[in-house]
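Work package 3, deliverable 3.1, input record:
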Amino acid sequence: MVQWTDFERATIQSVFEKMDYDDVGPAALSRCLVVYPWTQRYFGNFGNLYNAAAIQGNPMVAAHGKTVLHGLDRAVKNMDDIKATYAELSVLHSEKLRVDPDNFRLLADCLTIVVAARMGAAFTADVQGAFQKFLAVVVSSLGKQYH
Amino acid sequence: MSLSAKEKVIVKDFFAKVSSRSDEIGAEALARLIVVYPQTKSYFAHWKDLSPNGAPVRKHGITVMGGVYEAVSKIDDLAGGLLNLSELHAFVLRVDPVNFKILSHCIMVVLSMLFAEEFTPQIHVAVDKFLALVALALSEKYR
């Protein structure tokens, strides 16, 4: 089981409480599709992804970004057993969606960059450490059921 | 993977725009490196003060950022232009190249924090590619 310090627990709750999901979700997913264009392979039916402007204006990308970000809520509420919390989602991503688990890491990096932009100076090194540790546990849990 | 002519312009323009805060960027990036990835402290065991806001870390962050700017000036031939730095990292410092990726990420987090409006996805991808190519050039002489 992952050990969390009081600072880390408080930080994760605070960061997600203050987060504007409707802004951060779409921003993180669209950034991922622009910065790592091969991730577009999973969104063949999303319509126009031809360039950065199209991706950032695409309503299906925006909607899906919100869905994915809200998916993190479960982990935020169950920090002491993220692995069990995501077992089902891991199976879904492996068997139905067939997403290479490395993509979780790429999206996590983009989410970090977006949160850094929104929080500015409040995204201190310690906050970044807690946030990245949280995302690393999520990423690992989502990859656990792949075989 | 290589930089297009357009991306080289994006990279040069962006780094020129943020150059007045390059010291701050370097210091902050290195501080984050040792806090968020504590294993990187193993390369600085010879410093008495390893606190993220201490003088040695900040000074070294500035040095490293200077290297990044040197790479920007040699963007048309990174492998050739960074030969000396590659030899330094390969034979003297012997930094495991996995750390170049980690430091690149920290630099981009700081750029995003300090220049939220400017660090758009289009600029992010060009800078990400550039830093990856710098890492590759630094690894040239490793083996």
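The radius of gyration of chain A is 15 Å.
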